[in-house]
Amino acid sequence: MRTVRAVLDRALAEGRAALTAPEGKAVADAYGIPTPAEGLAETADEAVALATRIGFPVAMKIVSPGIPHKTEAGGVRISLTSAAEVRGAFTAIVSRARAYAPDARILGVQVQRMVAEGTEVLVGTVTDPAFGKIVAFGLGGVLVEVLKDVTFRLAPATEDDARSMLDGIRAAEILRGVRGAPGVDRDALAGLIVRVSRLAADFPEIGEVDLNPVFASASGVMAADVRILLVAQQPHRRRTYTREEILASMGRLMRPASVTVIGASDAPGKIGNSVMRNLIDGGFPGEIHPVNPKADDILGRKAYQSVLDVPGEPDVAVFAIPARFVPAALEEVGRKGVPNAVLIPSGFAETGEHALQERIVEIAERYGVRLLGPNIYGYYSTWQDLCATFCTPYDVRGPVALTSQSGGIGMAILGFARSTGTGVSAIVGLGNKSDLDEDDLLTWFGEDPHTACVAMHLEDLKDGRAFVAAARATVPKKPVVVLKAGRTAAGARAAGSHTGALAGDDAVYDDILRQAGVIRAPGLSEMLEYARALPVLPAPRGDNVVVITGAGGSGVLLSDALVDNGLSLMEIPPDLDEAFRAFIPPFGAAGNPVDITGGEPPSTYEATIRLGLEDPRIHALVLGYWHTIVTPPMVFAELTARVVAEFRERGIEKPVVASLAGDVEVEEACRYLFEHGVVAYPYTTERPVAVLGAKYAWARAAGLLGTGTAGEAD
Amino acid sequence: MRTVRAVLDRALAEGRAALTAPEGKAVADAYGIPTPAEGLAETADEAVALATRIGFPVAMKIVSPGIPHKTEAGGVRISLTSAAEVRGAFTAIVSRARAYAPDARILGVQVQRMVAEGTEVLVGTVTDPAFGKIVAFGLGGVLVEVLKDVTFRLAPATEDDARSMLDGIRAAEILRGVRGAPGVDRDALAGLIVRVSRLAADFPEIGEVDLNPVFASASGVMAADVRILLVAQQPHRRRTYTREEILASMGRLMRPASVTVIGASDAPGKIGNSVMRNLIDGGFPGEIHPVNPKADDILGRKAYQSVLDVPGEPDVAVFAIPARFVPAALEEVGRKGVPNAVLIPSGFAETGEHALQERIVEIAERYGVRLLGPNIYGYYSTWQDLCATFCTPYDVRGPVALTSQSGGIGMAILGFARSTGTGVSAIVGLGNKSDLDEDDLLTWFGEDPHTACVAMHLEDLKDGRAFVAAARATVPKKPVVVLKAGRTAAGARAAGSHTGALAGDDAVYDDILRQAGVIRAPGLSEMLEYARALPVLPAPRGDNVVVITGAGGSGVLLSDALVDNGLSLMEIPPDLDEAFRAFIPPFGAAGNPVDITGGEPPSTYEATIRLGLEDPRIHALVLGYWHTIVTPPMVFAELTARVVAEFRERGIEKPVVASLAGDVEVEEACRYLFEHGVVAYPYTTERPVAVLGAKYAWARAAGLLGTGTAGEAD
Predict the structure, then answer these.
(1) Domains in chain B, start-ordered, CATH in brackets?
(2) pTM to 2 decimal places
(3) What is this model's ipTM?
(4) Which residue of B has its CA nearest to A375?
(5) d(CA B649, CA A190)
(6) B519: helix, strand or coil
(7) Is the model more confident about B356 or about A598?
(8) CA of A416, closest CA in chain B: separation in Å?
(9) Among A445, A483, B311, B683, who pairs with A401 as Cys (CB 3.0-4.6 Å)?
């Protein structure tokens, strides 16, 4: 640590943004990062002597604080195999460097033993705006740079993290050895990743580390090039709250006894009127206190001049006043000791009014008031009959908590929920996230007994690490679905290293959310559908999925969908195959899919579904129904629901999903099945399997399949 | 040609499945495929002399017809740089080969100049079960083998095909040169691909060609290893029909004047009864003649003993009799000269009765009767009021022809169409495809004036080349959507070469269907939705897509979806930006997406949509609607429909799609918009953009965007 500290301090004192190669080597040595034998030559004679001592072939590179891009400056020569070549190279490198950057101070030329054995890989770290220090691993070389086959973890990474990275790239097979080539030393490579990640985590001023290439072989690893970039400035820290503080204030937000509405109004069409009406009409059983200096009474409730006059200790102050009046009212809310301010008004950062937003954050931090918003539709807490929004009420209680950063997406959540009858525990708008954000909400919903599934739309994370911590605490108990918007935004990050160039925002989010055990919804429809369907399904207890289908064509498409969703068709053992065959026509195909063939009566569906639920080696069922006059849709739906319920009574719970191919009657059958614990969709083979895949992804992350922890979810 | 013929004949005469390296070189020479200098040495002395003449370093390889896997046999040595090494290698190779395969005839050792300059690529050909000879191109080396970054075209490939292959791999950038490395000689590489593909196409007995690695550099290409595998047997050819014959028989199938039903029945529940009822109740205006030896009269129509007794010249015979009676009845149909037999019964190849199916095919080929099926639900031709199926009738006439290989998928088509009110021109079941298949149907639908879009579910293609030809003829006129099921089936192909191992079924289908200009639906839902929506949209005339959104959050998700679907957000020029800004609040974001912000009145939506339609630089609009009380859903829907119609009147037609975020009223608004030419969906940002993406994919393939032909569609 002391060596590294000294190197960094000197470089920062000199105002440099990068370490020189010898400095990089010193840092590497201090952290046990193996580098090739090398030395610094100030003259051609010294270079020859060095090369002779460390052994040919050697590479030579200019060492100059003023020349960060050595290749561009003509400052790199490789594969030098004789004293004569080394001598010539020294002269050439120095003269080119002088020509390239006349003012740069040239410290000499680094002479390095060339290692070129094994597979080229890249190990590095960057400082991510959402997640802070993260470590990257990928195959090195030009080809991989083009294919961007890299994976990321939070730094410092554990040994397990590092090992999962070796398996986390598309070209993972290469590391295990292909076409008879030996695999790399995985312990050594994982150890290197861990040490590099610690280095970055230990020193905030290290912006990026780039070991590229690292040569990894069966006999070890060697970082042929070490590049370290510095950052002088550390980001401003917000006030933070402990988990207990978060649970306390969120508890009062989501289960308030008293709500005050600042800017409550009698005038229809005003937000302050809609909020009051929704609170009252929604049946909120607690106190509702309107605040409006110009009224005595609003919707039959006594109105107060100021929140300071409101009786008791309100848990929530809902703001329905223009942005410019918010700071003064918020001061009063702070003085009153109200723990939560729900800021519906827009006119803050989203319209360019950053200073105004900073101001309310400062007030809130001073008083310890938590802010929801600003620029939101409000929030619903259905189990409290609380509808603190200006939108239409929603009162279907159920197990799903949904949040959205955007108001538009919030309205889509509301419409979808109403259309499908999805039961929700809460819908929360986050808007500008000036204070409360996804990690606070997730911390609460993780503990909330009414919530069995959390689905969140977000465009960014203010504090990715806090979110990961909240997700890790929640995932073992309930699934967390995230729709991360802005996936494909061109990463505008200025990249100073290969690692930096490879760390596109979305790649980082994708890897780190996955590691946190979060289910990432590919789109809005999937987020909504997962939210609706995941709580319907019991958790699977193992990987064996069996497809039972009346239509061979559906069986093929369902199998496609299973593979697409990372699920595996169980290999049916002979005795089980025999058992299925007993129920299906001789030309039907057992195996998996079990093709019972079209035109079969209800008894065939029932017998095979029973067998699927009964046999303990089978863990999940995918049903492909084909509409025929022999087994009409509702007959299929009722028999399936009945059999599933019967097994549930007996304590046998397995996820069952269904794809219904048929005329419009299948729509009613799907609704019936959904209400009876079977996730069913008409006219699609993809959606039921996608939901099952999401349930499996969660079960794996939650460690329910015995095949890994949250850290190893794929 | 003569050289190659002689080499192949000799090898086949000797019963060999592979050419030796010298034979491979002879073939390569004949087709202008550059290979390194080399020769065959029978003794160690000859090897040394050869190596000295052609220059070091050399590679040496055993030459023995009995040793196809040279490396396994210890028969390969590389990077030999001296006479002594060559001498030692000769001895070692020969003795190892003797030990490995004592009975193999050893012809000597090939001594080859080693070329290792440039990028390693792979060029090869395989014989695909659906498409016949296809040519493959990819980067070579171990890494690419792991990543399977390969692309395929039909052989022989044109120069344009070959060039599109260079751009068709994920690592295409490498070939253009990265990090200062020079690009490869694209003319030489494309030329090599063309010549290899011609070689394979010229000689049916060449099963696989594998040039791996080929070294491609700025100065040319060199195939370092040539491997050619032979096939002795050619597949059995079916009777083929000319395009005119297909159009003639399909015309009579789809627009019949007279239909006869073999196995017509009075008994409800029987297929022969359902078919009769559907024909009659569907309102088919032509003649309907039941055939049933046991009845005089069926559903009020005179019944005949045999089809031979039916008056006139029926265009179609629908079979509703058990499989075992089909051959005899089909003989009569042939003798009667009926051109089409629609074989509803199952009990043929799908139940293992291959011989029975062969028998009916033989009868049909003898008479020139075209067979639809067997094992199908029948078919609908709505513009003829023809419902020749045992399913429920469907009579919503419209522009989409749908076909399915599977009956279950056919029922899903019917249900989806009825549920969404999709207008169809035909729904056709293909079942076992004993004769008529997708290319016949596509040939017809391509010409059918009632059909504006064709959507096909298929699990395989009997004749991939005929399908590609039919697709190429159709795509310039109307979109062809294909759902290829069985995508992820583990390719059970026995691979004798690298190219073979890389040619998984789905990769080949994907590349070749795309090249044919077909839109590949990723799943059943998409196939159905594209079929419904594509005819609603006019074709785009250029690539500039603009998003106009009331919800910033939708704008982000719509942008994600655009990138996912290969579409590009137009870069808005300053004057246009200025023009949009005139309509939106100062804090709204112009640029693209144009964020008009929430809470805007209908006039803001209208003004910006008008501008989007008016400005000729904009080619397509994606609307993101946010439900507010200021602009309720139906107000948005009506204004959008009105403006779009007004511009259409003026001859300005651009595709407009919309995502509606809001409460359940948005569902009605979406239906209204759909009926008025705007493709709109609630609660999803992905689906409207996916449909637009499919329309663009078609427009590009059809050459409407001026940026390519069907052959260059991506």
Answers:
(1) 37-114 (3.30.1490.20), 119-230 (3.30.470.20), 243-376 (3.40.50.720), 394-535 (3.40.50.261), 544-701 (3.40.50.261)
(2) 0.91
(3) 0.90
(4) B598
(5) 66
(6) strand
(7) B356
(8) 6
(9) A445
